[in-house]
Design a protein that fits this description.
Strand content: 15-25%
Bound molecules: NADP nicotinamide-adenine-dinucleotide phosphate
Helix content: 25-40%
Structural class: alpha/beta
CATH architecture: 3-Layer(aba) Sandwich
CATH superfamily: NAD(P)-binding Rossmann-like Domain
CATH topology: Rossmann fold
Distance between the termini: 32 Å
Order of helices and strands: EHEHEHEHHEHHEEEEHEHH
Shape: globular
Number of domains: 1
Number of strands: 10
Largest sheet: 8 strands, mixed
């Protein structure tokens, strides 16, 4: 039997974290649909008989089509800036172009939430970033000219919290490609961490567990690796993080 009943759509499935999320969901026996911006980017999934769909978060119609039948979404989409866009022009280099942080991280998330509601999806786990709401941190200042990306992710988070959908917001530190489960994961409330890194595979496992672990719902959490043992009790892992204000109010009203 699957750990989670229903289809989970993974946005940004061809990215570093997205690929790991698809892999962890399959490990847990969950039905997955990998979503990326072109068939070519989905070829490796199709070869493994993984369900696929094409969508761009800037295109609401493509999202609605790609999400049909999904119960949940794990969103690993993120714009790239700087030398990752070398040769594409100044606007793309600085993340202010049609493919920049406002279009993708901010408005793209709003499009995604709207599409989820239209197709009846009920739950989202979104990967954003540590340092949102820490504008004076040197790294935040360094990123500011690049599409104001942390502000755009902040806007995306606010839209998720206001969406009425069940959600978990996962803010990782710097991402690495280290193998999974070599280390423990330090988890902290929003705005508590300002340094550290974590492997994309470990982020992926946190996202997967957040789907079916109730103590993760309605929360914003920050994660980095630490030198403790790998996580074994996920209910206890998420439990100390407080509910976001709106989720706490809703819980009080419903009590
Ligand atoms: N890098 C870090 O150290 C770091 C730290 C903290 C948080 N984060 C955040 O963590 C998340 C995952 O990071 P990552 O490094 O694993 O990401 P990544 O490898 O750069 O992958 C991002 C994915 O987003 C997709 N994407 C971009 N624009 C899109 C659009 N308009 N519509 C649909 N998909 C789109 C890309 O698709 P294509 O394959 O088509 O380009 C790619 O698959 C991102 O949100 C990132 O900002 C990163």
């Amino acid at each position: 039997m699957s750990t989670y009943e229903g289809l989970v759509a993974v946005l940004g499935a061809n990215g570093g974290t997205g690929r790991e999320v698809v892999s962890r969901l399959r490990h847990h026996g969950v039905a997955v649909r990998a979503i990326a911006r072109s068939e070519a980017k989905l070829a490796a999934f199709a070869e493994q008989s993984i369900e696929t769909a094409v969508a761009d978060v800037r295109d609401p119609a493509s999202l609605e089509k790609a999400l049909a039948g999904a119960r949940a979404v794990i969103n690993c989409v993120g714009t790239r800036v700087g030398f990752a866009n070398a040769g594409k022009g100044v606007a793309d280099f600085f993340g202010f172009g049609d493919d920049g942080a406002d279009a993708v991280d901010n408005r793209g998330t709003a499009n995604l939430l709207d599409a989820m509601k239209r197709v009846g999806a009920e739950q989202i786990v979104i990967v954003t970033s540590m340092l949102i709401n820490q504008p004076l941190n040197p790294f935040s200042l360094m990123m500011k000219p690049f599409g104001d990306i942390l502000t755009m992710k902040d806007k995306a988070e606010k839209a998720v919290r206001a969406s009425g959908l069940r959600y978990t917001i996962v803010r990782p530190g710097g991402l690495t490609n280290q193998p999974p489960f070599q280390k423990g994961v330090k988890v902290a409330p929003a705005d508590a961490l300002s340094s550290g890194s974590i492997s994309r595979a470990d982020v992926a496992e946190v996202c997967a567990q957040a789907l079916w672990t109730e103590t993760a719902y309605g929360k914003t959490l920050e994660i980095v690796s630490d030198d403790t043992a790998p996580v074994s009790d996920w209910k206890a892992f998420f439990a100390p993080i407080p509910l976001d204000a709106a989720a706490a109010q809703a819980a009080t009203a419903g009590a």
